[in-house]
Amino acid sequence: MPSAMDRGYRISRYAAGPVATRIGEPSPSADAWLARHRAPSAVLLTAWNPMSHPMPRRWNDAAHARLLRALRGRPVEEGWSGNAPWLEWTACTPGDRRLGLRLARRFRQRAFVLLRRGRPALLVYAPSRRS
Fold this sequence. Notes:
The protein has one domain. About 30% of the residues lie in helices and about 30% in strands. It has 4 helices and 7 strands; from the N terminus they run H-E-E-H-E-H-E-E-H-E-E. It has helices at about 5-10, 30-35, 55-70, 95-105, and strands spanning about 15, 20, 40-45, 75-85, 85-95, 110-115, 120-125. The strands form 2 sheets. The chain has a 5-stranded antiparallel sheet, sandwiched between helices. The longest helix has 14 residues, at about 55-70. The radius of gyration is 14 Å and the shape is globular.
């Protein structure tokens, strides 16, 4: 049986710039964006609320700024993802699962969305670090 958190990820809407999707659904807007950037895949993730712990808006905004700095030099789209009242500032950039895992670990995120041209959006969980 899926957890409430897993269900939350799966019913959320993910949007960044012209890219919009939901887990398990194809996304013509993601396909068009990927084609425009000549990329087979992209990652869509947030730096907000690490490990799903609510943080103050100011902290989250600073984390998002750090994410954008980490993506400097890459094409990036920004937007909001989630379901009210849990909405998070999100970024999308061309890249593969390895990039998504690296960013998810760096920004302490449980999961990210992997967009693959011509395929449904995939929720990828990042293994947690052991202390």
